[in-house]
Prior knowledge:
Layout: E1 9-13, H1 17-27, E2 32-37, H2 40-47, E3 52-55, H3 63-71, E4 74-77, H4 87-96, E5 104-110, E6 121-122, H5 133-152, E7 156-161, E8 163-165, H6 171-176, E9 182-184, E10 192-194, H7 195-207, E11 214-217, H8 225-236, E12 243-245, H9 253-260, E13 264-265, H10 268-274, H11 283-293
Parallel strand pairs: 1-2, 1-4, 2-3, 4-5, 5-7, 6-13, 7-11, 8-10, 9-12
Amino acid sequence: MPKTISPGNLFCFGLGFSSQALARRLISKDWAVSGTCRDSKLKEPIKKLGISVYSYDGIQASSKIYDAIRKATHLLISIPPQTSGDVVLEQFGPDILNWNHLKWIGYISSTGVYGDAKGGWVNETSALNPLTSLSFRRIEVESSWLEYYRDYGLPVMIFRCAGIYGPGRNLLLSIKNGKARRINKKGLVFSRIHVDDLAQTLEASMVRPQPGEIYNVSDDHPSPPRETVEFACGLLNQALPPLISYESAKLTETARGFYKANKKVSNEKIKKNLGVRLQYPDYRIGLNSLFDQL
């Protein structure tokens, strides 16, 4: 991937963890970045990054949001699907047809859409077997966005992300705050991705847009969740949390679906098609870097 990208204008629906990582990357390269945020407490910290922030509750959009979209060259959607569907499609459906000024539209989804592969590898052509209602909705929304590519030629790309971690959101902080759990389920492996590697993948796609494509975004080393907890505790020199069996663990529907979904997520496509070279190819390198920042 080239080290630089021509400055453009990015609009983000949902200025969350992943969008902010991409924004920081692009602002350093003279991009203009704007987007929506529904939490008023987060608006000021986001503005300090140099981002123009607009309130959006998923129901009503101000004229300023429409103006910002008209000025944008690139669009990122990271708002998770609601029970009613995708708020962006619901609110802006008719307008999207006229967004032919956009060079790139990225939709952030999840590798949860693959469900359980019984510990085997999945790639972008693997069957979808969602285990939670959220994953079902993600598949529906992915399909709806891709229809805008197929039917109207809009430059839509889908990014299915593994568990995202990074500064401010990681296992080290969970352990320090006493919130980490060591749950044991035989043979279970997870895939992960550092948020900075997600951001560089999104930028690589902007440099080399391939409309209609779907990309898995994950690191090189799927591993058991208890293994990562044990490694992180070793870095912090803290005692291990008690080992809890999966059967006895109290989990939400989403978390239980997470533990049911045993798979290894291939990242070969982002390497081959987009030229991505991961900065944090496994959780050890990622957590060591985060430990140095504590």
